[in-house]
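Repro:
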Amino acid sequence: MIVLPEIRFSTALREDARKKIESLGYADIVVGIPAYYSQSTIAHVIEQVARGLEKYFPEKKCLIFVSDGGSTDDTREVAQEVDISRYNIEKIVTVYRGIPGKGSALRAVFEAAEFLKAQAVATFDSDLRSITPEWVKNIIQPIYNGYDYVCPYYKRYKFDGTITNTIAYNLTRALYGYRIRQPIGGDFGMSRKLVKDYLDKDVWDTEVAKFGIDIWMTTTAIVDGYSICQARLGAKIHQEKDPAKDLSHMYREVVGTIFRLMEQYENFWKNIKGSKDVPILGDFVGAQPEPFQIDQNGLIQYFKIGYNNFSGVWRSILEEKDFKIIEKLFVEENPENFIMPVETWVRIVYRYADYFHRLPRQKFKILDTMIPLYNARVASLVNELQDMDDQQAEEYFNRQAEVFENMKDYLIKIWFQEG
């Protein structure tokens, strides 16, 4: 078998895209849409972005840049056919180069924006069904008001965004002291200075180039001292993903990036005490979040298969009292009694972060053993949030984040202990 050498690309832009960008000369605003198998939603996103740019930034020269991951459906064809000529807005649709993943897609967007000297850059997911022109205003306007990084602030159904609600929000808040509710939300605004900073980082051949990009962008903006706010965007209605089926790869890449960043920035976060609010700007826009079914039995089954495969690993990583809780969950036959205490979950996350930190190699393999525990936590949330509306669930998630903050000394103790 011939093993081909890994190709490192100095740019994510293909030649045809680069020539189109050069012909434009400059742009004030670049909106990137990373796309992959989005033929049923991409036209709506492009149309809404174009309407928003024309309505709220009519004096600006704007580019919509669709950065596709090599979709073999009709995503690119549909994107090409969307006629936005009446808006006097440019559009480029291209396949990026580099490691397959959203990070490489955004690298191409950032390179286009940097070449065009864009003052403001925005990114929107290609599977959005609830995006409106007001989203464009709320994400981009703060950049012109002096902010460098604009995070989305959604209304979400209580079981949507489980990686955010179980780990990403909690660790961003507890480690770095910023209450950014959607640090991996997908829809962001950035200043030219921040985009250039991103491009200068040596990460584009790492896990960041896959699905770790959002949390990397957020953490980098915090640690490098950029001015950050949140923009109200109403409900995020998109192609929802069942945590029992679809999120394992994403979990591994997002959580792996979070843990990598913990290693890189340990001297920053070890001194952070408590957390602070991050400004939330703009009026809520768009629809209310839509409920959807979550397969609790599938989550529990995934966890129990994981127990059969990984209980020995769990016993070596977890505290004894937490492993005993996991054992009880394994033999629990009534799904309605399936409850994982939040303190147990916090210790699991902190101990896995520390274990990941101490492993000299094969770090990402250990994350595979964490995914069934994550599924168990989500199955527990199904019970804990069952009778709550979305606002009550939001209050619950904030209390959970406070537990992560209050138990940070536990992380400090195990992370920095000798041996």
